[in-house]
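Human: Cast an eye over this sequence-structure pair and say how the chain folds.
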Amino acid sequence: MYPQIEPYEKGRLEVEASPTFIHSLYYEVSGNKNGVPVVFLHGGPGGGTDPKDRQFFNPEKYKIILFDQRGAGKSTPSASTEYNTTWDLVADIERLREKLGIEKWHVFGGSWGSTLALAYAQTHPTRVRSLVLRGIFTLRKSELKFFYQDGSSHLFPEEWDRYLAPVDPSEQDDMVTAYHKLLNSPDDKIRLQAAKAWSRWEMATSKLYVSDDLLKHAEEDTFALAFARIENHYFVNEGFMRDGQLLEEQSIGKIRHIPTIVVQGRYDVVCPAATAWALKTTWETQCSTSSPASFELHIVPDAGHSSREPGIEKKLVEAADEVVAKY
């Protein structure tokens, strides 16, 4: 990772979602004012950015743009699910690009950030120099079922019991829907308890070795409410897209020309490697020998989901260095 740096510009992107509702999105710019632009897309949805996210990029070569998506991080209103869909966020990325006067940029995202990066690139392929993605997530029903219903539960049974605890046994056959009810309860205590339980499940399963720091993060009221409410809102609505839409040939065909590097933890139980493999095989299926696929998949053998896993950090920095040098 590169040394810590501070932004030279901070601002707000005001988005009038309706005549009576405004999303105010926090953004910041750091690194080289004349560098090659890169936009960092955080996870969740609802996770927000962290100052350490700047450190994936060489500050002498990159103009580094971070922003908090609707309802996340420093964006307001916090934890809001109103006017908050995948396609709203895709439009926000374009608004930010135009506001900053950027013609094309590198797009870097992990987990939900990879979902959003793919959706953005497929919508605006001429604006993307490269994609650097981590922990591929395409919001298919099978992916949600593995993590939130029947899959990761077999590997982390003690944490799964904690996740089950707020939910009535009669509703545990559909945990995403059950949590939707709890996270939208009129009772503040019920909402917060559910938000912390939802957030802990992901924080507890995100690294090869459970991180006490991540578990503490899940106990922070503001973070937990935004993370849980927004994630659940997207998942109960199936990402506001067709099942498997991002992996369809008509979608991949729009971005096959974009140089893409994927970094995937072998033991990622939040976004298992099968989805990264599905992206790779779809990408390469229609690729002719005269026009080879610009796609690299790196599976890190001793890592889980988190971008903070040492092997994943290293590969992501190498990938960011590679694309800025080539493209």
User: Anything to note?
Assistant: The first strand starts at residue 9 and ends at 18.
